[in-house]
Amino acid sequence: MSLLRNILIQAFILTSLLGTANAAQMVSAGTFVPYVGKAQSSDSGATTKFELTPYVSYGLQFHMFGPHYFMPELGLAYYHESAKKTKKRILFFHYDFSYIWSSSFIIRYGWTTYWQTISGGGGSINLRNGDSYTDYTALSSPRDSYYTTLDLGGEFFINPTRSVRLDFNMMNARDLENRAFNYILTYNWYL
Amino acid sequence: MRALIFTIFFASQLFASTLNPNTGRGFAKNEINVLISPTDCTGAGFSTATFRDLVEDAADDYWNAVATADLQLKVKGIGNIDIAGQSHNDILNSGLVPNNTILAGCNQTFASSTTLGGAVMKCNGDNCQAVLIINSGSESAMPDQDRNTQIAVIAHELGHAIGLGHTELSHNLMYYSVSGKTQTWLGQDDIDGVTYLYPYDEPALGCDFLPILGAMGTINDISNDDDSNFPGGFMASLLIGILLAGVFSLPKSLKKLFV
Fold first, then answer.
1. Structure ipTM
2. What are the structural domains of chain A?
3. How far apart are the C-alpha atoms of B132 and A102, rounded to whole Å?
Protein backbone atom coordinates (compact mmCIF):
# COMPACT_ATOMS: atom_id res chain seq x y z
CA MET A 1 0.00 0.00 0.00
CA SER A 2 2.80 2.37 0.92
CA LEU A 3 4.52 1.51 -2.37
CA LEU A 4 1.37 2.40 -4.33
CA ARG A 5 1.05 5.64 -2.36
CA ASN A 6 4.67 6.50 -3.12
CA ILE A 7 4.21 5.82 -6.83
CA LEU A 8 1.11 7.99 -7.01
CA ILE A 9 2.74 10.88 -5.15
CA GLN A 10 5.88 10.60 -7.22
CA ALA A 11 3.93 10.49 -10.46
CA PHE A 12 2.17 13.70 -9.42
CA ILE A 13 5.40 15.48 -8.44
CA LEU A 14 7.27 14.30 -11.52
CA THR A 15 4.48 15.40 -13.81
CA SER A 16 4.44 18.78 -12.11
CA LEU A 17 8.19 19.23 -12.27
CA LEU A 18 8.70 18.09 -15.82
CA GLY A 19 5.64 19.85 -17.09
CA THR A 20 6.46 23.24 -15.68
CA ALA A 21 10.21 23.38 -15.29
CA ASN A 22 12.94 23.47 -17.85
CA ALA A 23 15.41 21.07 -16.24
CA ALA A 24 19.08 21.26 -17.09
CA GLN A 25 20.99 18.01 -16.89
CA MET A 26 24.45 17.50 -15.53
CA VAL A 27 26.94 14.65 -15.64
CA SER A 28 30.01 14.78 -13.43
CA ALA A 29 33.23 12.86 -12.99
CA GLY A 30 35.86 13.34 -10.35
CA THR A 31 37.03 12.09 -7.02
CA PHE A 32 35.55 11.44 -3.59
CA VAL A 33 37.76 11.97 -0.55
CA PRO A 34 36.44 10.65 2.79
CA TYR A 35 37.51 11.57 6.32
CA VAL A 36 39.64 14.53 5.30
CA GLY A 37 42.32 15.07 7.93
CA LYS A 38 40.92 12.31 10.14
CA ALA A 39 42.12 9.08 8.54
CA GLN A 40 45.77 8.13 8.92
CA SER A 41 47.53 7.59 5.62
CA SER A 42 51.17 7.02 6.56
CA ASP A 43 53.35 5.64 9.35
CA SER A 44 54.45 9.17 10.20
CA GLY A 45 50.92 10.06 11.29
CA ALA A 46 49.94 12.07 8.20
CA THR A 47 46.26 12.09 7.35
CA THR A 48 44.29 11.91 4.12
CA LYS A 49 44.05 15.21 2.27
CA PHE A 50 43.46 13.97 -1.26
CA GLU A 51 43.01 10.64 -2.99
CA LEU A 52 41.70 9.42 -6.30
CA THR A 53 38.48 7.52 -5.72
CA PRO A 54 36.38 7.53 -8.88
CA TYR A 55 33.12 9.40 -8.51
CA VAL A 56 30.50 9.79 -11.23
CA SER A 57 27.06 11.31 -11.03
CA TYR A 58 24.03 12.39 -12.95
CA GLY A 59 21.84 15.24 -11.81
CA LEU A 60 19.18 17.71 -12.79
CA GLN A 61 18.79 21.40 -12.10
CA PHE A 62 15.29 22.75 -11.53
CA HIS A 63 14.60 26.46 -11.28
CA MET A 64 12.69 27.25 -8.08
CA PHE A 65 12.49 31.03 -7.76
CA GLY A 66 14.86 33.94 -8.32
CA PRO A 67 18.46 32.74 -8.19
CA HIS A 68 17.54 29.51 -6.38
CA TYR A 69 17.64 26.06 -7.93
CA PHE A 70 16.97 22.50 -6.75
CA MET A 71 19.69 20.09 -7.89
CA PRO A 72 18.89 16.43 -7.18
CA GLU A 73 21.76 14.15 -8.06
CA LEU A 74 22.63 10.46 -7.90
CA GLY A 75 26.33 9.67 -7.50
CA LEU A 76 28.52 6.61 -7.26
CA ALA A 77 31.97 6.16 -5.75
CA TYR A 78 33.56 2.84 -6.48
CA TYR A 79 36.63 1.24 -4.96
CA HIS A 80 38.43 -1.41 -6.95
CA GLU A 81 38.34 -4.90 -5.60
CA SER A 82 41.46 -5.71 -3.65
CA ALA A 83 43.49 -8.87 -3.88
CA LYS A 84 41.61 -9.96 -0.77
CA LYS A 85 38.28 -9.68 -2.63
CA THR A 86 37.09 -6.80 -0.48
CA LYS A 87 34.64 -4.56 -2.31
CA LYS A 88 33.20 -1.19 -1.40
CA ARG A 89 30.91 1.20 -3.15
CA ILE A 90 28.98 4.23 -2.04
CA LEU A 91 25.79 5.53 -3.62
CA PHE A 92 25.06 9.19 -2.96
CA PHE A 93 21.56 10.63 -2.92
CA HIS A 94 22.19 14.36 -3.11
CA TYR A 95 19.34 16.68 -2.20
CA ASP A 96 21.14 19.92 -2.89
CA PHE A 97 20.03 23.43 -3.67
CA SER A 98 22.01 26.16 -5.32
CA TYR A 99 22.16 29.91 -5.20
CA ILE A 100 23.43 31.70 -8.31
CA TRP A 101 26.05 34.04 -6.87
CA SER A 102 27.29 35.31 -10.23
CA SER A 103 27.43 34.18 -13.84
CA SER A 104 30.49 32.08 -13.07
CA PHE A 105 29.92 30.90 -9.49
CA ILE A 106 27.13 29.17 -7.60
CA ILE A 107 26.87 28.19 -3.95
CA ARG A 108 25.59 24.69 -3.29
CA TYR A 109 23.97 23.51 -0.07
CA GLY A 110 21.70 20.73 1.13
CA TRP A 111 22.12 17.22 2.38
CA THR A 112 23.20 13.81 1.12
CA THR A 113 22.20 10.33 2.14
CA TYR A 114 25.04 7.85 1.71
CA TRP A 115 24.36 4.19 0.99
CA GLN A 116 27.62 2.39 1.64
CA THR A 117 28.13 -1.29 0.95
CA ILE A 118 31.17 -3.30 2.00
CA SER A 119 31.65 -6.97 1.24
CA GLY A 120 34.36 -9.57 0.94
CA GLY A 121 35.09 -12.94 -0.53
CA GLY A 122 34.87 -14.85 2.76
CA GLY A 123 37.39 -17.43 3.90
CA SER A 124 40.47 -16.33 5.75
CA ILE A 125 43.49 -14.11 5.29
CA ASN A 126 46.86 -15.07 6.73
CA LEU A 127 48.44 -12.05 8.41
CA ARG A 128 51.32 -11.36 10.75
CA ASN A 129 50.43 -11.62 14.44
CA GLY A 130 53.33 -10.93 16.77
CA ASP A 131 56.11 -13.37 15.98
CA SER A 132 53.93 -15.71 13.92
CA TYR A 133 51.02 -15.65 11.46
CA THR A 134 47.31 -16.12 12.07
CA ASP A 135 44.36 -16.82 9.78
CA TYR A 136 41.96 -13.89 10.20
CA THR A 137 38.37 -14.10 9.04
CA ALA A 138 37.79 -12.15 5.83
CA LEU A 139 34.72 -10.00 5.27
CA SER A 140 31.97 -11.91 3.54
CA SER A 141 28.31 -11.09 2.89
CA PRO A 142 27.58 -7.51 1.78
CA ARG A 143 26.52 -5.13 4.53
CA ASP A 144 24.90 -1.75 4.06
CA SER A 145 25.15 1.31 6.20
CA TYR A 146 23.30 4.56 5.63
CA TYR A 147 24.24 7.95 6.92
CA THR A 148 23.48 11.52 6.14
CA THR A 149 25.67 14.57 5.72
CA LEU A 150 25.11 18.28 5.53
CA ASP A 151 26.55 19.73 2.33
CA LEU A 152 28.15 23.04 1.49
CA GLY A 153 30.18 23.79 -1.59
CA GLY A 154 30.75 25.88 -4.63
CA GLU A 155 30.81 25.48 -8.37
CA PHE A 156 32.92 27.57 -10.70
CA PHE A 157 31.85 27.81 -14.33
CA ILE A 158 34.59 27.72 -16.96
CA ASN A 159 31.98 28.41 -19.60
CA PRO A 160 28.16 28.15 -19.59
CA THR A 161 28.20 24.36 -19.93
CA ARG A 162 31.39 23.31 -18.13
CA SER A 163 32.20 23.72 -14.47
CA VAL A 164 34.36 22.54 -11.58
CA ARG A 165 32.70 21.73 -8.27
CA LEU A 166 33.97 21.29 -4.72
CA ASP A 167 31.41 20.04 -2.20
CA PHE A 168 32.14 19.41 1.46
CA ASN A 169 29.91 16.85 3.23
CA MET A 170 29.81 17.11 7.01
CA MET A 171 29.29 13.94 9.03
CA ASN A 172 28.29 13.97 12.70
CA ALA A 173 27.10 17.55 12.31
CA ARG A 174 25.80 17.77 15.87
CA ASP A 175 28.90 16.26 17.47
CA LEU A 176 31.61 18.91 17.50
CA GLU A 177 34.34 16.59 18.76
CA ASN A 178 33.73 13.78 16.30
CA ARG A 179 32.66 15.89 13.33
CA ALA A 180 34.29 14.74 10.10
CA PHE A 181 34.29 15.90 6.50
CA ASN A 182 34.30 14.27 3.10
CA TYR A 183 34.66 16.20 -0.12
CA ILE A 184 33.76 15.65 -3.74
CA LEU A 185 35.77 17.34 -6.48
CA THR A 186 34.28 17.01 -9.95
CA TYR A 187 34.35 18.32 -13.49
CA ASN A 188 30.79 18.85 -14.70
CA TRP A 189 29.11 18.88 -18.09
CA TYR A 190 25.74 20.67 -18.40
CA LEU A 191 23.58 19.43 -21.26
CA MET B 1 40.92 13.67 -21.47
CA ARG B 2 40.93 9.89 -22.00
CA ALA B 3 44.19 9.64 -20.07
CA LEU B 4 42.64 11.60 -17.20
CA ILE B 5 39.57 9.38 -17.11
CA PHE B 6 41.74 6.25 -17.29
CA THR B 7 43.90 7.52 -14.43
CA ILE B 8 40.93 8.33 -12.23
CA PHE B 9 39.13 5.07 -12.80
CA PHE B 10 42.10 2.89 -12.12
CA ALA B 11 43.68 4.83 -9.30
CA SER B 12 41.70 3.73 -6.29
CA GLN B 13 42.07 0.34 -4.72
CA LEU B 14 40.54 -0.93 -1.54
CA PHE B 15 42.57 -2.99 0.88
CA ALA B 16 41.25 -5.43 3.37
CA SER B 17 39.88 -5.23 6.86
CA THR B 18 39.57 -8.58 8.62
CA LEU B 19 37.55 -9.91 11.52
CA ASN B 20 38.49 -11.53 14.80
CA PRO B 21 39.12 -15.22 14.02
CA ASN B 22 37.44 -16.32 17.26
CA THR B 23 34.05 -15.02 16.26
CA GLY B 24 34.10 -13.48 12.78
CA ARG B 25 31.51 -10.97 13.92
CA GLY B 26 30.85 -8.04 16.22
CA PHE B 27 28.76 -7.65 19.34
CA ALA B 28 25.02 -7.88 18.84
CA LYS B 29 24.54 -4.42 20.34
CA ASN B 30 26.17 -1.20 19.23
CA GLU B 31 26.57 0.09 22.78
CA ILE B 32 29.18 -2.00 24.60
CA ASN B 33 30.28 -1.69 28.23
CA VAL B 34 33.96 -1.74 29.12
CA LEU B 35 34.63 -2.86 32.69
CA ILE B 36 38.04 -2.40 34.32
CA SER B 37 39.63 -5.18 36.36
CA PRO B 38 41.18 -4.14 39.73
CA THR B 39 44.26 -6.32 39.08
CA ASP B 40 47.51 -4.38 39.58
CA CYS B 41 48.88 -2.68 36.43
CA THR B 42 52.13 -1.39 37.92
CA GLY B 43 54.24 -3.70 35.77
CA ALA B 44 52.75 -2.06 32.67
CA GLY B 45 53.88 1.35 33.86
CA PHE B 46 50.70 2.81 35.29
CA SER B 47 48.23 2.43 38.11
CA THR B 48 44.88 0.74 37.64
CA ALA B 49 43.17 4.15 37.86
CA THR B 50 45.45 5.51 35.14
CA PHE B 51 44.76 2.38 33.08
CA ARG B 52 41.07 3.20 33.22
CA ASP B 53 41.80 6.71 31.89
CA LEU B 54 43.92 5.25 29.09
CA VAL B 55 41.13 2.86 28.13
CA GLU B 56 38.65 5.73 28.06
CA ASP B 57 40.97 7.81 25.87
CA ALA B 58 41.51 4.84 23.56
CA ALA B 59 37.76 4.34 23.19
CA ASP B 60 36.97 8.02 22.64
CA ASP B 61 39.93 8.97 20.45
CA TYR B 62 39.61 5.99 18.15
CA TRP B 63 36.52 3.80 18.01
CA ASN B 64 33.88 6.18 19.35
CA ALA B 65 35.06 8.82 16.88
CA VAL B 66 34.14 6.96 13.70
CA ALA B 67 31.44 9.06 12.06
CA THR B 68 30.22 6.27 9.79
CA ALA B 69 29.85 3.67 12.56
CA ASP B 70 27.40 3.51 15.40
CA LEU B 71 29.73 2.01 17.97
CA GLN B 72 29.70 3.40 21.48
CA LEU B 73 32.17 1.97 23.97
CA LYS B 74 31.05 2.98 27.46
CA VAL B 75 33.97 2.78 29.87
CA LYS B 76 32.70 1.99 33.36
CA GLY B 77 34.51 2.10 36.68
CA ILE B 78 36.89 -0.39 38.24
CA GLY B 79 35.00 -3.57 39.04
CA ASN B 80 35.84 -6.53 41.27
CA ILE B 81 36.84 -9.21 38.75
CA ASP B 82 40.45 -10.09 39.58
CA ILE B 83 42.25 -11.56 36.54
CA ALA B 84 45.68 -12.21 38.09
CA GLY B 85 47.27 -15.35 36.65
CA GLN B 86 44.36 -16.13 34.34
CA SER B 87 44.45 -16.44 30.56
CA HIS B 88 41.88 -14.85 28.28
CA ASN B 89 40.01 -18.13 27.87
CA ASP B 90 40.12 -18.89 31.61
CA ILE B 91 38.40 -15.57 32.27
CA LEU B 92 35.86 -15.95 29.48
CA ASN B 93 35.03 -19.50 30.57
CA SER B 94 34.64 -18.45 34.22
CA GLY B 95 31.32 -16.83 33.42
CA LEU B 96 32.27 -13.73 35.42
CA VAL B 97 32.25 -11.32 32.46
CA PRO B 98 28.73 -9.93 31.95
CA ASN B 99 27.10 -10.13 28.53
CA ASN B 100 27.76 -7.25 26.15
CA THR B 101 30.88 -6.35 28.11
CA ILE B 102 34.61 -6.07 27.49
CA LEU B 103 36.66 -6.75 30.61
CA ALA B 104 39.97 -4.85 30.47
CA GLY B 105 42.86 -5.43 32.84
CA CYS B 106 46.53 -6.24 33.28
CA ASN B 107 48.33 -9.46 34.22
CA GLN B 108 51.50 -11.42 33.67
CA THR B 109 50.32 -14.43 31.67
CA PHE B 110 52.08 -13.54 28.42
CA ALA B 111 54.75 -15.93 27.18
CA SER B 112 56.69 -13.21 25.33
CA SER B 113 57.85 -9.92 26.83
CA THR B 114 57.53 -8.30 23.39
CA THR B 115 53.77 -8.86 23.43
CA LEU B 116 52.19 -5.67 24.73
CA GLY B 117 48.67 -7.03 25.06
CA GLY B 118 45.99 -9.26 23.68
CA ALA B 119 42.22 -9.57 23.43
CA VAL B 120 39.85 -12.46 22.87
CA MET B 121 36.16 -12.27 22.05
CA LYS B 122 33.52 -14.94 22.54
CA CYS B 123 29.88 -15.09 21.45
CA ASN B 124 27.05 -17.45 22.20
CA GLY B 125 24.13 -16.33 20.08
CA ASP B 126 23.58 -12.65 20.80
CA ASN B 127 25.52 -12.84 24.06
CA CYS B 128 29.08 -11.65 23.52
CA GLN B 129 31.92 -10.96 25.92
CA ALA B 130 35.55 -10.05 25.42
CA VAL B 131 38.65 -9.89 27.56
CA LEU B 132 41.46 -7.41 26.96
CA ILE B 133 44.73 -7.92 28.85
CA ILE B 134 47.78 -5.65 28.89
CA ASN B 135 51.11 -7.29 29.65
CA SER B 136 52.28 -6.19 33.12
CA GLY B 137 55.05 -8.77 33.40
CA SER B 138 58.43 -7.76 34.77
CA GLU B 139 59.93 -7.57 31.27
CA SER B 140 56.91 -5.97 29.59
CA ALA B 141 57.80 -3.29 27.05
CA MET B 142 54.66 -1.34 27.87
CA PRO B 143 56.37 1.04 30.38
CA ASP B 144 58.85 2.01 27.65
CA GLN B 145 56.07 3.39 25.44
CA ASP B 146 54.94 7.01 25.53
CA ARG B 147 51.37 7.77 26.55
CA ASN B 148 50.19 8.18 22.94
CA THR B 149 51.54 4.74 22.04
CA GLN B 150 50.07 3.17 25.18
CA ILE B 151 46.67 4.53 24.16
CA ALA B 152 47.18 3.19 20.63
CA VAL B 153 48.09 -0.25 21.99
CA ILE B 154 44.96 -0.35 24.14
CA ALA B 155 42.87 0.91 21.19
CA HIS B 156 44.33 -1.86 19.03
CA GLU B 157 43.30 -4.47 21.59
CA LEU B 158 39.87 -2.84 21.89
CA GLY B 159 39.66 -3.33 18.12
CA HIS B 160 40.13 -7.07 18.60
CA ALA B 161 37.64 -7.03 21.48
CA ILE B 162 34.91 -5.52 19.29
CA GLY B 163 35.47 -8.09 16.55
CA LEU B 164 38.23 -6.82 14.25
CA GLY B 165 41.28 -8.70 13.04
CA HIS B 166 44.57 -7.41 11.69
CA THR B 167 45.14 -5.50 8.48
CA GLU B 168 48.16 -5.64 6.19
CA LEU B 169 48.83 -1.92 5.81
CA SER B 170 51.13 -0.58 8.50
CA HIS B 171 49.55 2.86 8.94
CA ASN B 172 46.29 1.31 10.18
CA LEU B 173 45.74 0.88 13.91
CA MET B 174 44.94 -2.82 13.39
CA TYR B 175 48.38 -3.54 11.93
CA TYR B 176 50.15 -6.12 14.08
CA SER B 177 52.86 -3.79 15.39
CA VAL B 178 53.10 -0.23 16.71
CA SER B 179 56.88 -0.01 16.44
CA GLY B 180 58.36 2.44 13.97
CA LYS B 181 55.25 4.50 13.47
CA THR B 182 53.24 7.32 15.00
CA GLN B 183 49.63 6.27 15.45
CA THR B 184 47.22 9.14 15.96
CA TRP B 185 44.14 8.23 13.91
CA LEU B 186 42.43 5.18 12.52
CA GLY B 187 43.31 4.22 8.97
CA GLN B 188 40.70 3.62 6.27
CA ASP B 189 40.85 -0.17 6.78
CA ASP B 190 40.04 0.34 10.47
CA ILE B 191 37.17 2.67 9.60
CA ASP B 192 35.76 0.28 6.99
CA GLY B 193 36.02 -2.66 9.39
CA VAL B 194 34.18 -1.00 12.24
CA THR B 195 31.59 0.41 9.83
CA TYR B 196 31.05 -3.11 8.48
CA LEU B 197 30.47 -4.47 11.99
CA TYR B 198 28.56 -1.51 13.45
CA PRO B 199 26.76 0.49 10.73
CA TYR B 200 25.91 4.08 11.49
CA ASP B 201 22.59 4.52 13.22
CA GLU B 202 22.52 8.08 14.42
CA PRO B 203 19.26 9.88 13.85
CA ALA B 204 20.88 13.29 14.36
CA LEU B 205 20.59 14.47 10.78
CA GLY B 206 18.10 11.98 9.51
CA CYS B 207 15.23 10.48 11.27
CA ASP B 208 14.38 13.19 13.80
CA PHE B 209 15.79 16.40 12.34
CA LEU B 210 14.88 15.53 8.76
CA PRO B 211 12.25 12.81 9.03
CA ILE B 212 11.77 12.69 5.27
CA LEU B 213 15.09 10.91 4.94
CA GLY B 214 13.50 7.73 6.20
CA ALA B 215 15.28 4.57 7.29
CA MET B 216 18.91 4.99 8.24
CA GLY B 217 21.68 3.08 9.87
CA THR B 218 20.23 -0.38 9.87
CA ILE B 219 22.34 -3.37 9.06
CA ASN B 220 21.03 -5.39 6.18
CA ASP B 221 21.98 -8.33 4.09
CA ILE B 222 21.46 -7.15 0.52
CA SER B 223 19.58 -10.31 -0.35
CA ASN B 224 16.87 -9.18 2.06
CA ASP B 225 16.49 -5.69 0.65
CA ASP B 226 12.97 -4.58 0.02
CA ASP B 227 11.08 -1.33 -0.28
CA SER B 228 10.76 -0.90 3.49
CA ASN B 229 14.47 -0.52 4.16
CA PHE B 230 15.50 1.29 1.01
CA PRO B 231 17.85 4.09 2.08
CA GLY B 232 16.11 7.38 2.39
CA GLY B 233 12.81 5.64 1.68
CA PHE B 234 10.40 7.80 -0.24
CA MET B 235 12.82 10.67 -0.86
CA ALA B 236 15.49 8.43 -2.37
CA SER B 237 13.06 6.69 -4.67
CA LEU B 238 11.65 10.07 -5.65
CA LEU B 239 15.15 11.30 -6.49
CA ILE B 240 15.76 8.27 -8.68
CA GLY B 241 12.40 8.82 -10.35
CA ILE B 242 13.23 12.43 -11.14
CA LEU B 243 16.59 11.45 -12.59
CA LEU B 244 15.12 8.65 -14.68
CA ALA B 245 12.57 11.08 -16.06
CA GLY B 246 15.49 13.33 -17.00
CA VAL B 247 17.23 10.50 -18.80
CA PHE B 248 14.17 9.94 -21.01
CA SER B 249 14.51 13.49 -22.24
CA LEU B 250 18.23 13.26 -22.97
CA PRO B 251 19.38 15.49 -25.79
CA LYS B 252 21.16 13.91 -28.72
CA SER B 253 24.49 15.34 -27.58
CA LEU B 254 24.44 13.24 -24.41
CA LYS B 255 23.41 10.10 -26.26
CA LYS B 256 26.42 10.58 -28.54
CA LEU B 257 28.64 10.84 -25.50
CA PHE B 258 27.75 7.31 -24.48
CA VAL B 259 27.61 5.68 -27.94
1. 0.89
2. 2-190 (2.40.160.20)
3. 58
